[in-house]
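ok so for the tutorial part 2 we go from a plain amino acid sequence to predicted C-alpha cells. step 1 is just haveing the sequence, like this:
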Amino acid sequence: MDVTQDELDGPARLRFCKLGESLLKPDGWESARRFPTLREALKAAATEEPPAGAAPFIVTNTGRTLKPEQLAVTWDAIQGP
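step 2 — the prediction. this is what the C-alpha cells look like for a chain of 81 residues:
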C-alpha cells in the first residue's frame, strides 16, 4: 500500500468498525478519533486493542479509506528495516 508523504503528514481519522458494518455511514465517521497525522493514527491502530468483533479503519486527508489489512502493511512499511 503506497501512501503519499502528504497523507502521512496530514490529518487522519481512526474508527473501529464492527465486521459487516457499513463504512459509508456518515455519522460513524463524525465520531471517529482524529489524529494530527496518519502516522499517529496508524500507530494507534497497530497498538490498541480493538473492541470485540471490530477492526480498525482509517480515512486519510485525501479521503482514502485504509482497511485493516492495508493498515498493517503501511505501518510496517513506515517503520523501516
